[in-house]
Queue: 2 jobs
Job 1
Amino acid sequence: MLINLASDTSTLPSAAMRAAMAGAKTGDEQRFEDPSTRALCEQTAELLGQEDAVFLPSGTMCNLISAALHCAPGDEIICAESAHIYGSEGAGYAWLAGASINPIPTATGIFSAAEMAEKIRRPKLRAPRSAMVVIEQTANRSGGTIWPVETIKDVSETARSKGLAVHMDGARVLNAAVATGIPARDYGEQCDSIWLDFTKGLGCPLGAVLAGSRDFIERAWLWKHRLGGAMRQSGLSAAACSYALDNNVKRLTEDHANASRLAKGLRTVPGLVIQETVETNIVMIDLPESIGAEGLNQCLATKNIRLSIEGEHRMRAVTHLNISKEDVDAAVAGIAEAVQNSENPARS
Ligand SMILES: *Cc1c(COP(=O)(O)O)cnc(C)c1O
């Protein structure tokens, strides 16, 4: 069996989740007649401290619609340079909303209110308008780091005082909530829009829920239709998401423990530099100059192990509900062997 550490999107729906889907009450989502989808939206809005929510096919569409609603053409978005919206969504914000990005270089994916304030344009006739700031909780490509709630408050207050909307890319906000014990609502309440991805650690086949004020969600519905994201009997999928909220949240602590275990194991492998503190389920791995990520992944494939490639010498490992403690130990052993063979090809 493949030990797939490339992403927590590789989770497969469990038998119990499939059973919940099979038994779901359904109707036409577009007429607000799908009870399972309505229930999920209400449950998620409450969880994230918002008035209302809308079910969408993907997290990417949540970011896209939020950019469209918070920005006018020519406006600017402020986010960390490593943010998913900036590097991993085909610049949808530019294509659809006509916005550009003013990125903040960070080591952790987290920036202070002061760092953001420096990027906010002073109102001048010829300057673009800073319209939206994106907080990515947790910061994926920075190793699953957690935005402290105080930092979010500061950023949010400063942003709002300058007229920017605060958007949280909460793909993994529940990982942060479980790791810190801080309710997701405490993060969400600081934001004008926030969404949660069900296809990452929560283990669902598809779906994300975007939450905000009643007015924001009403306006989001037009974009949902426009982008072809309005569904029909979406309750089949929504039921999987509700199942995940009830059953797969607390267990995220296991993924965090496994990620720490993985990091600890990998620190014993000569040549590898492992992310110093592992806060959630993501571990960044830096390889020595002599080893390329492509080559190492090919070698790992022969051992049924997969990591994701983040740069020429940088890889990422993500733990999730289909990764056990035993898988982690096997992965450490396999990666150690592959690294040794790559450094001494003659001996392999
Ligand atoms: C996965 C991810 C997205 C995109 O979500 P999809 O459901 O894959 O479209 C956005 N932001 C972050 C931080 C992510 O990890």
Note: Residues 58-60, 84, 136, 140, 169, 171, 197, 199, 208 surround pyridoxal-5'-phosphate (CB under 6 Å).
Job 2
Amino acid sequence: MKIMTPGPTMVSEEVRKARALPCTNPDLDMEFFKEYKTLCDEIAQLLHTTSNVYLLSGEGILGLEAAVASLCEKDDRILVISNGIFGRGFKDFVEIYGGKAIVYEADPKRGIDVSKLEAYLKEDHDFKFATVVHCDTPSGVLNPIQDICPLLKRYGIMSVVDSVSAMFAVEVFQDAWDIDILLGGSQKAMSVPPGLTIASVSDAAIQSMQKRSTPIASFYCNLLNFLDYDKKQSFPYTMPISDIYGLKASIDEIRHDNKRYERHQMIANACRKALCAYGLTMYLEDDYSPSLSVFEVPQGIQSDMILKTMIEDHRIMIAGCFDVLKDKVLRIGHMGYNANVNDVRMTLRALDETLRKLNFKGSCDMEAEFMKHIA
Ligand SMILES: *Cc1c(COP(=O)(O)O)cnc(C)c1O
């Protein structure tokens, strides 16, 4: 089966082999500390940052919760910037940790309009930090964090960025973009099985955590527990060594993949053009993430029938959606290992055949249309 969902993605053979390497005791083996530190430094380099990179044992959601748990104190006002389901979801974490979430709700069909956000901040900017999602995966919208985070910083507001489904599909410049906590997840554009969060934490964010008047109400989500792990040669809990070996193999691939970001962009553009030429409608009006394509379920056809036929006839899995977009859109993931012409091409051919079987009259050969836009 081909897994063409917007995470988890397919996993390369190198990553799978690395996960089968012999294990050491990660708490006692000094070699492992060195390898972990080197891996974190390589990730920092790819994110263009001097921040503190930590690998947390837990799927991407752990990073979102850890950032909020570590920064938020009772009654802190937190700005939740939302134009999608993950964006809005931060409100729950803020409230769990006693903060006051003020939700800034924006058009779900395009990226955040920075000038409107600026007008809002002129009136109210008394926030300890703001949360924003880089690519909100249910809709596939890509937010301009390169403009949002520096704007927040001008108002003295720290930023927490959920880049789980964009990191390494889109190049991120954490320091130049003034991002305080940048979060990634192993199962998205890194194409490692689910299990790890990448958290890159600025010194300013660490200082803010250290200045808290109340303790962080969690152990597992307390980012300060990772502070100076390399000098102390001690992790807060035993590291998932096979997951980390898998991540290391993936980061090696990413470091040597010179055309990575252009390829993601090219495949996303070609995929979108093919879907539209065929007669399908994209969910978004603008600001498409290069990591996935999201299109509306054609009228008169059940989303489940499309997904089921794709699997039964073609052994290809794409994704529907959830929450307010349940049964409304379909999603093709083309991030990380899935950002290769052959797999996307086969997926579009299968989708074309599936839709025709379900009596949708496509206006072109979707695969051929896709290939027209591949250099
Ligand atoms: C995948 C993802 C996460 C992690 O969530 P899961 O649903 O548990 O995989 C967090 N944020 C975004 C934007 C994601 O795409």
Note: The two ends are 27 Å apart (CA to CA).
